[in-house]
Amino acid sequence: MDLSTTYLGLHLTNPLIVGASPLCDDLDAVRRLEDAGAAAIVMHSLFEEQISRERERNAADLEAHVNAFAEASSFLPHPNEFHLGPEAYLEQIRRLRAAVSMPVIGSLNGVTSTGWLDYARMMEQAGAHALELNTYYIASDPTEDAVAVERRTLDIVRAVKAAVAIPITVKLSPFFSALSHFAAELEAAGADGLVLFNRFYQPDIDIVELEVRPDHHLSDPTELLLRLRWLAILSGQRPKLQLAASGGVHGALDVVKAVMTGAHSVQMISAVLRHGPGHLTRVRDELARTIEQLGYSTLAEMRGCMNLARCPDTSAFERGNYLRVLHSWRDPHVHDTRS
Ligand SMILES: Cc1cc2nc3c(=O)[nH]c(=O)nc-3n(C[C@H](O)[C@H](O)[C@H](O)COP(=O)(O)O)c2cc1C
Prior knowledge:
- The chain has an 8-stranded parallel beta barrel, surrounded by 8 helices. Strands 1-2 form a two-stranded antiparallel ribbon.
- Residues 64-80 have low confidence and may be disordered.
- Helices cover 42% and strands 16% of the residues.
- It has a single domain (5-313), classed as TIM Barrel (Alpha-Beta Barrel), CATH 3.20.20.
- It is of the alpha/beta class.
- The chain has helices at 27-36, 48-56, 59-66, 70-75, 86-99, 118-126, 146-163, 179-189, 224-237, 252-260, 270-275, 278-293, 299-302, 320-328; strands at 5-7, 10-12, 16-21, 40-47, 104-109, 130-134, 168-172, 193-196, 204-206, 211-213, 242-246, 265-268.
- It is built from 14 helices and 12 strands.
- The protein is globular.
- The structure holds flavin mononucleotide.
- Flavin mononucleotide binds at residues 19-22, 44-45, 75, 107, 109, 134, 171, 199, 218-219, 246-249, 268-270.
């Protein structure tokens, strides 16, 4: 079965990408991931505040940045415990390039279009095949409107696009008021792809100690549904953008659904952390069997068959179905006399 796909212009032997996480820090681990079937790897993010810190050596500035990076704080327990500093990060790209043949995607995480973006060019020079931009930001300032929030990301995309020749993809949050419009603007600004979506760090609270608990839970497949809807909508509307599903991809059926709704690739983290690299082999092999059973001869043939442009019932992804779902719900505890 031909599972090959193209993502960010890169030829991938199959759609399984190991998404951004510390798994990229250990060369042997990365070799095992490639041997097990990973078609590409995204490095964990290099954060704007790391670069700012390195440049300014100003602890007060770092503290001011930290609260703006919600996803950052979920992965990075303390500002002094980043996995790799900026220089070590570039060196790790070089080492990964020498160690594996699969594409290596660098990841930058930040919210301003200032000097730290020089690292985009440095990542390209170090050998990154593509860049993923994670601009996740909690818009908690009541004086900042939605246009300003979107403009931040658009400015970053334009700045990076002007600086590098390698493809760039934007890892988005699902919480935009007008995501279709924003996706069109991102494409116009130069994005080659989108990663749908960031997975939110959602702090719990301790009701006795009155503390915020910054736990980070691994995902489960229910999180995929939000991704499927937007993959279907955006892949139908923006065929030039190459899409990656991220969040809730655990098994082969999740991959099939993501590809059917239009994903060019899927990123897996929680499942790999939970089950180890061998999980990729199992998913890849089951994916091949499932595609064959469904009657397709290649993965590419299946891609997008359930997106908004081709799905027989587009209302299923839009509001129309909301009414149907609500009307068809029956309380299992109440005897239904309607039929
Ligand atoms: C331990 C860990 C570290 C992560 N580090 C990053 C990171 O540095 N940058 C980033 O964009 N996403 C990071 N993520 C988020 C993942 O790339 C991914 O978006 C998220 O886990 C959802 O995918 P999953 O359901 O396959 O886990 C991290 C996730 C985990 C579990």
